[in-house]
Amino acid sequence: MIQASDCRYPDARILVVDDNPINVELLLDLLDEAGYANLHSLTDPRQVLAQLEDALPDLILLDIRMPHLDGHQVLGQLRARWGEQMPPVIVLSAQTDRDTRLQALGLGARDFLGKPFDQLEVLQRIHNTLEVHFLLRERHDRALLLQRLVDERTAEIQRLSFQDPATGLPNRRALLASLEQALHAGQPLSLCYVALDGFAAISRLHGHVLGDALSQRLRDRLLDCLGDAAGVAVWKHTAWVIHVPDNDTTRLEALLQRVIACVAQPFSIDHLRLQLGLRIGVSHSEQPHDSADHLLRQAALAVPGEADQWRFYHPALEAELQRRSHYRLALHEALDRRQMFLVYQPKIDLGSGRVIGAEALLRWVHPELGFVSPAEFVPLAEASGEILRIGDWVLDSAIRQLEAWFAAQQLPDGFRIAVNVATLQLMQPDFAERLLERLQRSSLPRGALEIEVTESGLMQDVALARRQLQQLAGQGLSIAIDDFGTGYSSLAYLKTLPVSVLKIDRAFVNEIDSNLQDLRLAETVVQMARNFGFVTVAEGIERAEHVALLQDIGCQLGQGYWYSPPLKADAFLAFCQQTHAACP
């Protein structure tokens, strides 16, 4: 039982509300002797709301039977005005019948004590209520801090998302937005899609730092050459766009000649003379088009094969679109032709250095197109719906591989493979049921499979996602939020979804050793995950400094090229065996 000397919250703001001055004085004396110093009182319940507008107390001690407004009415006013932010209330009343107690508790009172009361019991209950109050406030403040950090970082990412990182010029997102505005306003517009020949080879030969320097020199030349006559944006590092508010062919050709002439001069960087070639495709707003993106596609199709030349778009160039149709067809046949396969990137326990699991990643190698990046084919698969068939194949393949490894006793107990689930898959009402049927037919131990979903995927239909994930989690599957920390969604869903793993986005890990804000955000995510009982996995670990900082802030797991790239099954197994042999 708490004693007077045990007061842990001496500065807690406590308000006593009782119409009897003697009762008020007795309570104030009791609280003062117990060590509470920030005490306030009212004998007129009509003044409660006005006083609380100035400052909310940490606790209200409230009588029930009072003139003008009884305690129940005061509770009702507090609840109506402050809702969930209503301060905690302990009722102290001689009116202790069952209906009175239940009504007070139903209106939000935290506790109910009858008069006369035991002083030590009252002090103990006050202490308990304040302890819960301050604990909840601390968690709320942490959530607000995390939300603020996420918002700040998201705002910075939003700003950077409109800029090319090397040059500061508008990127494709910014370009499309500005072009759409110009077209919507009916302004004349010509687009010059500038293919930079030799840039990729220079970057490969001399490194990306020199490549960035070359981009900056090119930016300066073009801006000086064009002046106010046109704008420049970076579509990608080997293709830029010049946009001209003019459709006059003669003036446009004169401008293109100046551009080619100014870029034809060699660039001198770090005692090197570097040469770029240009090929320029041109489209303009007088041609039939659906959007700014359509105009840009027309300009890109018009890029000639000869260096230092330009060509205007012509409808005959649409034949080039057939190649893209072939691409989509190839994607449709990729599974049947066994062109797709899985690779596995090890997940490492940052403390011991041991492999405790893996993320299964999809790869596609076409006999003609060669290696096709997931960043290119996954959006196509999602747009066409092909991702449903591919996603089923990925899950089946990962389960079969796990079964083989476990059957051969090649993996330690507790090993888990994570599989990415696309938004379209998660939004299928029977997704969870079908996956559980697969697992029931398999020989996998419970918990061997982990599902990774994105924040954006969850936000498409939170209720459906919750039902699916709860069904999976109920059968032992671990649920991970991929790329957590991008700020796409509210943090509130973490309270209701059966999440057990947070993956810190590589965008925050990449500069964790040089960007204090990224470090603070990662640390806050780890602390929040610890409070929720989640495991944290850092993505994109590429340097020893990353590992050391992530260990310092308490991140448990990590993956990235510092440890290993994604590996085929045999190479992955060899890596696991080598790693376990090297670890004590």
From TrEMBL:
One of its GO terms (biological process) is phosphorelay signal transduction system. InterPro entries: CheY-like_superfamily, Cyclic-di-GMP_PDE-like, EAL_dom, EAL_sf, GGDEF_dom, Nucleotide_cyclase, Rev_trsase/Diguanyl_cyclase, Sig_transdc_resp-reg_receiver. SMART domains: EAL, GGDEF, REC. Transmembrane segments: none annotated. Residues 13-130 form the Response regulatory domain. The modification 4-aspartylphosphate is found at D63. GO terms for molecular function: cyclic-guanylate-specific phosphodiesterase activity. Keywords: Phosphoprotein. It comes from the Bacteria. The keyword Phosphoprotein applies. Residues 324-580 form the EAL domain. Signal peptide: none annotated. PANTHER family: CYCLIC DI-GMP PHOSPHODIESTERASE PA2567, CYCLIC DI-GMP PHOSPHODIESTERASE PDEF. This is EAL domain, c-di-GMP-specific phosphodiesterase class I (Or its enzymatically inactive variant). It comes from Geopseudomonas guangdongensis.
